[in-house]
Amino acid sequence: xxxxxxxxxxxxxxxxxxxxxxxxxxxxxxxxxxxxxxxxxxxxxxxxxxxxxxxxxxxxxxxxxxxxxxxxxxxxxxxxxxxxxxxxxxxxxxxxxxxxxxxxxxxxxxxxxxxxxxxxxxxxxxxxxxxxxxxxxxxxxxxxxxxxxxxxxxxxxxxxxxxxxxxxxxxxxxxxxxxxxxxxxxxxxxxxxxxxxxxxxxxxxxxxxxxxxxxxxxxxxxxxxxxxxxxxxxxxxxxxxxxxxxxxxxxxxxxxxxxxxxxxxxxxx
Length: 269
Description:
CATH topology of the largest domain: 2-enoyl-CoA Hydratase, Chain A, domain 1
Number of domains: 2
Helix content: 40-55%
Largest sheet: 7 strands, mixed
Order of helices and strands: EEEHEHHHEEHEEHHEHEHHHH
Low-confidence stretches: none
Number of strands: 10
Strand content: 15-25%
Structural class: alpha/beta
Strand order of the largest sheet: 1-2-3-4-5-7-10
Distance between the termini: 26 Å
Mean pLDDT: 96
Number of helices: 12
């Protein structure tokens, strides 16, 4: 894999062909969020959107932990790296972009969780599209328990993703939950043996990358762009996104590959 120069001391960004792997890398603090980490995350998501050959990203944490949430002191301190400080000045709202609250990448993100993914860690998970969690992982939104507020967006997003009563259980009690409970709630896609989250996430990412990129990106947009619309209004948006995909060269290649019983080769056009 290629280590990309947009990496920071607390965020490793690597490219492997059509896949970008983003690793929160501050294990001495259980990968708690810092300014260096958020700048790296924001840069990674912008890169995923901008690079046409990138099809999918994975978000994970280093050394068996996903993310223990915000380190308010570290988030308030500027980076000691001049290049990263300069990048922070250039990226408006890098905190929100890093946390997947603003300017979500146009390609899917697969979340690979080992260990703790709590507070801001769970908020990051809620911002991703597909979620793989190790069986002994711990999740939870602890903010209310500490008289804080989940600023990453979960107060709005969570009840749109899982049943209301489950969302309020997590948000209002601030209690930790197991991977098995998260699966039952519909918060995650798969629970896997410890140490296997990244491996399984890569398998899922490979399936996504093998799909037509125009179709994948249009499906993401159809969901995001129709939130709050009535069904007739939403279907109009869906049609506007869908017809160009159906008329694309990729769609013709998909039909040819099916007929010829071979893997399709998509080029995003």
